[in-house]
Structure formats: C-alpha cells, structure tokens
Batch of 2 targets.
Target 1
Amino acid sequence: MGLVYALGAYLSWGLVVPVHFRLLSGFSPSHILAVRILWSCLFAVALVLLWRNRVRTPFPLRPRHALLFVSAGLIGVNWLLYLQAVNSGHLLDASLGYYINPLVSVALGAVVLRPLQRVAVGIAAAGVAIAVVLAGTLPLVALELAMSFALYGLVRKVVGVDPAVGFLAETLILTPAAFVWVLLSPEPALPPDPRDFALLALTGVTTALPLIWFAAAADRLRLATLGLMQYIAPTCLLALSVLAYGEHVAPHAIPMFGLIWLALALYAFDLLRAGRAARAHGVPGETAAPNPGAMRV
C-alpha cells in the first residue's frame, strides 16, 4: 500500500498539478497563489478537524515553532516560482529545479557529507557551471526553486511538528496576505465561469492530497525507497514539458542534465548502500532521508 500512496503523490506532483495550473493560465500566478492559499487553508482546517484524534498537536508551544513563519514564507515563494514557471512555459526549469533539490538538501542538511554524496553534489555543481559558461546565464528559476524548497525542508525538520498541523499553520500565516491580495485584485476570486471556479477551488485539493499520500507512504516505506521514488515527479515534468507542451532542451542544457542525472545516480547508489548497511546493523529503513515532503509544489 505504501508504494501506491507514493506513486499517487509523485504522479500528482509530476502530472496532475502542472496540468491543473496550466489550465488556469488565464489568471496571473500571483492571483492563483492567493486563491490557492485560501482554498488550501479551508481544506487543511477540514482535515485537521476530521482527523483531530490522529493529529499530534504542538502544544505547549516552543520557541522553534516560530520558525513556521519562515517556512510559510519559503513555501509561499516556492509556490509562486513554480506557478510562474508553469504558466510561462518553463516546465523544463521546474523539472531541473526539482532534480537539483535533493542534492541541495543533502548539502544543506548534512554536517558531514559521505564521500559519494560529496562527489554527487560536486558533479551537479559542475553541470550547472558548464551550462552557465555555455549559455552565459544562470538557470535562475531552477536554482531558486531548488534553494527555496531545500531551505523549506530544512526549516520544517527543525520545527518538528505534525505534517497536517504544520501545513495548516503555514496556510493560516499566509492567509491574511492572500485575502488582501484577492480583495484588491481585479481578477475574480469566485469567477462566474463554473469551469474556472471549479479549477480554482480544486487547488486546495491538489495541494493537500499529495501531501497526505506522501505522509502515508513515509509511514510505510523505507526512506531509501521513498528517496529514490522522488525522481518520478521531475521526470514526469520533463516528459510533460517536451512531449505535451513542446518545450525544447537547449544545447547548453544537455550536459547539465547529463551531469545532474549522473550525480543523482551516485546519490541513489549511496542511499541504497546506506540502507543495506543499516539493515545489516539491525536498523531497518534508517538511511539518508529524502527532503521532508519532497516536491510540495
């Protein structure tokens, strides 16, 4: 069952979510973000009330819980960057960002990198450097997506609250700004077209459901398995951008993708090797964890 939940989460993030937001391209990314926050907050409140007996409350509050304001800001920035990438025809950049993300997370979260992880991060950095030299520009969207989400994952790990409560807290923190934006925006929050209304309302569902499935998968699968499966989403994004939306991989990006895939292969090998070593010492499933809630777009 864990594999089913994981596939549901990663296929949603790689296929359903980008197609959903592409259908909303008639609205500005900022407006979609604001409405998404409001609907996600309502959905999160309903989930926490429905599962109140299973949700771990964060009380008594600790000073570290104030970091939820930081994580809320980071996930808000990440969502906006992703929406801009999807609606401006830059799904390839989004795919690249989420390929790089686990390696950035490893670099940020590990006090001491294992040798193979150090090599993987170095190869990925070399790939980006080569692309910069060949193209003369930084792949800013991809790097901003990777950094914002890696920092978000790091902050959430430090906060250490229940995923549902954390998600609710973040959307509540973002709700006042989203509400003001919707009030001042010339774009309708409740459009008269039933199709547009349904698509906007469903942003809360397509935001929250994959997170629930991911949490369910994390409870049932070894972290090494979950860590390897996270590459399903950016691979789907890459295929979607090229096959469905006609984006082209620029010549300067080919060596970058190649080196990043090599880096990810080394990282995956290191995860599997660490998993085998942990099981040999009688600690099943204890491996380098993937970024918490990876691909929360």
Target 2
Amino acid sequence: MTDTLKIATAQFENRSGDKEFNLERIRQLSATAASQGAQAVAFHECSITGYTFARNLSETQMLALAEPIPDGPSIKALTDIAKENNIYVLAGLFEKDEHNHLYKAYVCVDKNGLVAKYRKLHPFINPHLRPGNEYVVFDLHGWKCGMLICYDNNVIENVRATALLGAEIIFMPHVTMCTPSPRPGAGFVDPALWEKRETDPTPLRLEFDGMKGRSWLMKWLPARAYDNGIYAIFSNPIGMDDDQLKNGCSMVIDPFGDVIAECRKLGDEVVTATLTREKLQKAGGHRYRQARRPDLYADIIGQEHASVQKVVWLNEK
C-alpha cells in the first residue's frame, strides 16, 4: 500500500471505427504519461472504437465493431502498451459476449492483461446496447478504484454506491459537453472553430470554457468528488467525434473538489497528478459519509422506480 499514487488523464481526437489509429494514439500518450512518472493513465469512453458515430450503426455493424473481453485484439494491444511503459492503461470500447450481447465497456489493463472490466449502467448511443448490472471496485497499487462511464456519473447514487464499496478513486471516462440540453447556454459548437484553432483560438476557447462546455461541467463534477470524499479521474475527447465537436478538459479532481491537474491544450494532451491518502481522510466527504443515517432513507432510496433516460441531442438534426 502506498501513501501517494501518480495518475494521468488524457485527451485526444479519436477516429470513428479506426481502432488502429486510436490505439496508436493511446500508445503514444501512454508513453508520455509514463515519462511524467504516472503509474496509470486513463482515456475517454470508447477511446478505442470511437463513440458518437455508433448512433447510426445496425446491430450487425455493432457486432462487427465490438470485441470479446479479455480475448479480443484491443485488450491484447493495451496489454502490450502497458508492458512497454510499465503503466496501467484504462480505455473504452464496445464489447460483445459469447451470446452476441452488446455492452459499452471500460477496462483497466496492466502488463499481464485485464485487471478489471466495467459495463456502462446507462448506455444510450445505440439501441442494441444492453445496460451493465454491477459496480466494479478493483486494486491499483494498493488503492481501491471504481469505474463509472459518462451518464452513470449523473445518477448520484452510482457514485455514492461505488464509494461505499470502498473506492478511493473513481475513473470517470466521458464523451460529453458541447451538445444541446434544456439547461441554459447549452448547444453544439461550430466545427469551423476547430478548423481555425491554430490561427484564431479565442472564439473556440470561449465556447469550450463557457456554458456549452467546462462551465457546465464544473457545476456538478467537483461535487461528485467532494460529497463522496474520493478522487475523480475525468477523461474526455477533444476535437471531432463523428460530427460533434468535443472540448476535452480531461482533469483530476481531489476529495476537496479541487482540480489538481487539467488538459488545457486545444489538441491531444496528457497530464499527471499526485494523489495522497491524507486528503481522503481530511476531506469533508469522508466525515459526512461517517455521519450518514441510512435508517431514515434506505426505504426511500430503495423504493421501486422505473428508469427513464432521455438524451435531448439524440433527437437534434
């Protein structure tokens, strides 16, 4: 068990359906993370396969894109990357099981192969995806870690449940922001701004940092870390994901809700933060969890409920 742990989070512009390209970027950024002293590096949701383009794929096409875990080629490639750099690698892809059931998966791999696999509890990008049905907590250099993919983190019970299962670090891979929503200021960002990012970066930065992007994220993401007294490792792509522009800002948030490392480039980047156990005990979230009274609300939280999940931008033209 170590008192400190160095974790990296990355952002890059993935290519839809181009696993070879995406795995090469993961390879390069993992090497950079290792050079920064990181012991683990986290990439975004579906970083291996691409994400948004899957909304238009048939079941046959999804099955051709998806892979078995741990015996598929992408897990083998991640294992090679982990071995080359002596680092844990976390990345996402579409999974198919022995019954050809489809899932959105996120994995942790080390030099020996698969360490942990998680299936998204609230998938929506393709109607043929099935929801996962369990939380996952695993060991990483003596630290307890969990995984929650994108929308899963918006349902606050998921974060609390993972923390109560012992997670001190929760990896939160996303493909998010810069899409329409009923919240004020939301919307797509014009891809033309991305094309002009080198010659005229200011308009793009204003969109990325405003209510379409980072300002919205900062309304809720730090609260997940603070309320639960955990480290949140947020990973998100930057650039074009199919026909949508994403703003990156991958970051590490400590148990006080403070951002301690963040990708700020208008392009591919990886940053590393040092996590300390001391913060886990000193953070308010630790004390508040100790003060809980589940006798008051266990039946309320656990009452029957039909899950309804609506994603506004899926209906946008």
